[in-house]
Amino acid sequence: MYYDLSYMSVPLPEDVLKLKNYGDFDGAATLIEHLLSNELPEALRKRLEIEQDIIRIVGINEYPFDFSEASQMMEATFKDYQEQELTSLKETGKVDWLYIDGKIHFQRRFLLNLIKTQADYEARLIVKEDNEVDRLRKQELTQNVQLMKENGSRKVKIHLKTSIKVKKQYERPGETVRVYLPLPKECKQTSDIQILKTVPEATFIAPEKEAQRTIYFETILKEDQVFSVEYSYINQVDYVDLDPKKATEVQPEFELHEQLPHIRFTPYLEQVLTEVLAGETNPIKKARKIYDFITTKVNYSFMREYFTIDNISEYAAVNLKGDCGVQAILFITLCRMAKIPAKWQSGLYVSQYYTGCHDWAQFYVAPYGWVFADLSFGGGARRNGDLDRWNYYFGNLDVFRMPANSEIQTDFNPPKQFLRADPIDNQRGEFEYENQGLPYAYLDVQQDLIAMDELV
């Protein structure tokens, strides 16, 4: 069943908002049920139905730690911790929190977020983390920039295995399950996509041009069953050095539309864009100004599930924080508002040092065509003082990618019956029984690089 998330742009009734902001999710759910029993405008009905699922998702292990528990975790993790620090971090927006029944609770990854985004807290770790992998990843990316500039392009063959299983306590052997895993899709940089092995046998493999491409399993669940797929593909990226002087006067007019609720041209974003562009008219310079704004002003931060955010682009521009996808959506939105075609791309970052979910953007400028922008990688490079890599990710991408999605908020083929764990994107996969879909808190997902070979 496709969820039309555009209805999230409809305001919630005041009393529902009061209960939600206080953290009385049971009360909010009860009120929504009461409201839905009445005659309502169809748009409001759709919004309330979506809110029922948002409340449920927020309540499933998203903000598990109260102030006392979070403070104890801080004390066990950082040297010379004082309790007032947590209050200060909350007040300065460096930790994500909300009210549950009127009491402050912290997001499940607040501690990891502090370590990864606040250098002073990383330096105070009681047990120092092994940063060798991070160092090697940065070295790998810096070397990629050098190789791309020297050779003009890179081509690799990547062999990956991804898998998904339901956690033991939520396992129901003997019942029919429907399972989806993302697959590499046909796009600018990929070719020769091969499905090498599936366990069990696949029920359906979506076409390579699918906007969110998946492999689909439908079977009777066995105890401890793992669903997996192995595939290979060739990834080639070409280096581009965008020259504003070469931008043509006439630019195309596709991929300029709003896509509610997250790509929304709001009055606030109009004001932000006017300030950022400062009268600039050259399309490459406009895109660069937007890139610079996001990579210098929007701090990297882990996020709660995207589905629980009303408007991702405005969230990023108001709170000045967000992860790779949040920053990419803000970039796409501002580019479209500036009459620069822009679109989504996401999937996995894949290398010998790390494999995991990642999002980035594409934008179009004639005569170059579609080029890339990786906001979080660019911003991270700038914060680390690597200006060459910062400049590189305006227009370019590395070879360490598995692109599975070219759009947000699209249905699968075949369609999923229940609300997706991630209705926006698909990087980890989806799992459902005949009577419900499962959130990621109920699932174990794994991605493993088998081989990556450089091709001449």
UniProtKB/TrEMBL annotation:
Name of one Pfam family that matches: Transglut_core
Domain called Transglutaminase-like: residue spans: 316-377
InterPro entries, alphabetized: Papain-like_cys_pep_sf, Transglutaminase-like
Highest taxon of the lineage: Bacteria
SUPFAM superfamilies cross-referenced by the UniProt entry: Cysteine proteinases
Name used for this protein in its record: Transglutaminase
Natural source organism: Enterococcus caccae ATCC BAA-1240
